[in-house]
Design goal:
The chain is mainly α. Helix content is 47%, strand content 0%.
């Protein structure tokens, strides 16, 4: 991935959801499990909780029914 080639990011690149995207190809091509798949799922769940919670909080304050 492009972000993996930028050395200035350091360990922050592991927090991006696209870092673990290529780990899924081994499941479809070689039918093997990769431990990076679990890390990718955990990163995605983290993003879902943070941004989903922010969206719920944001829209619960708005009057969208009128």
């Amino acid at each position: 991935m492009l972000l993996d080639s930028i050395s200035a990011l350091g360990p922050v690149r592991y927090a991006f959801p696209v870092h673990y995207l290529t780990s899924w190809t081994t499941m479809f091509t070689a039918n093997e499990f990769s431990p990076d798949m679990v890390a990718g799922i955990l990163v995605q769940v983290g993003y879902l909780v943070v941004f989903g919670g922010a969206a719920i909080h944001w829209f619960s304050r708005k009057d969208i029914r009128s």
